[in-house]
Amino acid sequence: MRKKEMIAMLLAGGQGSRLGVLTRKVAKPAVAYGGKFRIIDFPLSNCINSGVDTVGVLTQYQPLRLNQHIGIGIPWDLDRKNGGVTILTPHVKGGDSGEWFMGTANAIYQNIDYIDSNNPEYVLILSGDHIYKMDYSKMLAFHKEKKAAATIAVLEVPFEEANRFGIMNTQDDDRIYEFEEKPEKPKSNLASMGIYIFTWSRLREALVEDREVHPDSDFGMHIIPKMLDEGQTMFAYRFRGYWKDVGTIESYWESNMELVKALPAFNLYEDFWKIYTNSHHQPPTYTAPGAVVKESLVTDGSEIYGEVYHSVLGSEVIVGKGAVIRDSIIMGKTVIGENALLERCIVDENCEVGSGVHMGFGDNLPNETKPNIYNTGITVIGSHTKVPEGIKIGKNCVIYGYTKEEDYVGGKLDSGKSVVREGK
């Protein structure tokens, strides 16, 4: 069998629980981003732009929308007979044995046969839930130059934030001598990005051996420390571009808001490193007489009759006459009724916000049910949700489902409250 130089294994099965209601029905990598994209578009585009034409996508949690979006990989030029994109799900291995992916490394272990069938010299391990542009071919060249068993992409973070990350401690030549997971007193500020290149023969051996000890084998907790303890050569590859983990409501909102700046830190418009997505052809955006759109991203097929300021709108969004949207993310196929006012909100796909609704106003009180997720003043509406006309909604609220007037006492929902309905 002809050996491939490198294939990618893209971990896309995470629940993304810190995104709250946005991942109630979809995996985190399938969440919409920047109006027309989904989060997984970024690592997939990085792969094809870097010359990596064989990608295994490992899914587990709520994979339907993700699978539909990826399809056979046409938007990313990954619809290939030799290589291309392959969706890899947990499956029965033989007889009646089978199990869920129990950890990041365990997920790779369970797909050893797929990797072996491609006969790669190197394996690139990626996460499906980060926003960035990166040329993996440069990282591979570094890996080969250093004759490393493993190369780990790192980002320099402020020292005061280093205790939130897995930290690589290195020698002067960036050879890694120690890995610390969220250290109280970090010795360095080189944070792991969750992007690894392994020489496959070395990783395969480590996965098989560690499986006997840790059924829930994880790269950060088990494989990397194991290889370091064995004295295997591991290097840190410094990345200096934009990288964002959009794993919380605040970071997701913040990253989208950064896109609407005149000179955004993350540029979606560069021709030499395009981000591809599975998007259907839409009619042009319509802006009605008297409508106002300022410092915003508005995707094809939208109709604007009201006012939109510093916001991101997905495709086929309708903003009614007299409606005002500020500092908000409105995802595709959502209708905002006339004279509605939305400030610092995230509204998921296929929603209907009634006329006269006021959302995102009042005291900044943490959400009563999930204060660790909703606490920065952002009100979030889940997909396929209806909000009746005239309702007043505060900050850090969560609304999901086909809600009715009787769900709102006195026609309002105070800050920090939630309304969740299943069905209609």
List the helices and strands and how they pair.
Layout: E1 4-11, E2 32-33, E3 37-38, H1 41-49, E4 54-58, H2 64-70, E5 84-88, E6 92-94, E7 97-98, H3 104-109, H4 112-118, E8 120-127, E9 130-132, H5 136-146, E10 150-156, E11 166-170, E12 176-181, E13 190-199, H6 200-211, H7 219-229, E14 234-238, E15 243-245, H8 249-258, E16 286-287, E17 292-294, E18 297-298, E19 303-304, E20 307-309, E21 312-313, E22 318-319, E23 324-326, E24 329-330, E25 335-336, E26 341-343, E27 345-347, E28 352-353, E29 358-359, E30 379-381, E31 386-387, E32 392-393, E33 398-400, E34 412-413, E35 418-420
Parallel strand pairs: 1-4, 1-8, 4-5, 10-14, 16-19, 17-20, 18-21, 19-22, 20-23, 21-24, 22-25, 23-26, 24-27, 25-28, 26-29, 27-30, 28-31, 29-32, 30-33, 32-34, 33-35
Antiparallel strand pairs: 2-3, 6-7, 8-13, 9-15, 10-13, 11-12
